[in-house]
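Interim report, section 4.2 (structural modelling).
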Amino acid sequence: MKKLSLTVNGKKYLLSPHPFSRLLDVLREDLKLTGTKEGCGEGECGACSVMLDGKLVNSCLVPVLQADGKQILTVEGLAKKYLTPIQESFLNCGGAQCGICTPGMLMAVYALNRNNKKPTHQEIREGLGGNLCRCTGYCQIIESVQKIGKTKSATQKGKPRS
Amino acid sequence: MRAYLPDYQCSSAKSLSEALRLLEKGARPIAGGTDIMVLFDAGLLAPGDYVDILGLSELKGITQKKEYADSWGVNHLFGGSPTQVFTNKFSDPL
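Predicted structure of the assembly:
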């Protein structure tokens, strides 16, 4: 089977999965990056969101051959030494409850925040439109996005990552 | 029930001519996955050969050429030089 080259969180992997394998399964099972969650498995819930060459995608809908030669960022790649301001804010504002939707939410917020540091309430709702949460009722999640960079560090040392 | 992976072959076309060659042999094209992957996971996608045409630069955008055929197949010439009316340089909303 043809070898595929994926760059995940800056690390290059050579794999030979079946080309129709879901990117989600390759990340979780082959690379053991289980931060990315499977919610519905049919592109409705956004729990499996990852960045693929700078675009937010549902990894359950990406056949892995489409990720050949591309850059992938998963939730594991967000924090380096310290948590990112996005994660700090989710911690502080109660933006995570059971946690299944959180990795996808974080990736969606990351995608939203890259070009829009001060999204309006409506823009946040649109940015998170592809992500379902069944616990928090979204209020705390939206608040978390609004307060990015404004809350005290929950981990006491959470320096923003450049 | 999940589909049985070995029943499916899929390759990524490097050029439009390669894609057309594979299509002629009976492969079916895929360009995204939103519907295909859902059908596949449900075991409802027909087994066989598929060709991924997502990366084909020839299929990115629409170009207006000097000569064109109208809906009756009659050839016409544009007055000016060929103009690119649309390219796939979408600005990513995110």
